[in-house]
């Protein structure tokens, strides 16, 4: 009986995490230590450093210079979306595509010139234009 209860709880947790919908995500690129937190259904995410502006649709953060918030998006289908992010100063924006490649993996690709950078040594260097993002629990 105990084994059935544990299985039911685990199944419920797994189903709840998948039931968030394909565009309510917490993604992480382990190689670059970059996070992408999204909710393209409603403005529900507090962006670090931009809390005064209220909840937004998401942000890109981690091992990058500053925080880039979701400024706009276009959901193409259940597996692909175009997203526009802007830096925390609002001085630059960047378009990217996010495509689901499996249940737990997404491909992130920056379109055009990549403005997102990170500090390496004492210099700002561009991050890769394409990354594989893994799903993390919300």
What does the model show?
It is a single chain. This protein has 138 residues and is mainly beta. It has one domain. 12% of the residues lie in helices and 48% in strands. It is built from one helix and ten strands; from the N terminus they run αββββββββββ. Strands 1-2-3-4-5-6-7-10 form an eight-stranded antiparallel beta barrel. The chain has a two-stranded antiparallel ribbon with strand order 8-9. It is globular and about 40 Å long. The two termini are 29 Å apart. The N terminus is likely disordered.
Would you summarize the structure shown here?
12% of the residues lie in helices and 48% in strands. With 138 residues, it is mainly beta.
Q: What percent strand? A: over 45%
Shape, please? globular
Radius of gyration: 16 Å
* SS summary, helix count: 1
Average pLDDT level:
87
Sequence of secondary-structure elements: HEEEEEEEEEE
The amount of helix comes to 10-25%
The low-confidence runs, each spanning 5 or more residues with pLDDT under 50, are 1-19
How many DSSP-defined strands? Answer: 10
| Major sheet details | 8 strands, antiparallel, barrel
Structural class, by secondary structure, is mainly beta
Number of domains: 1
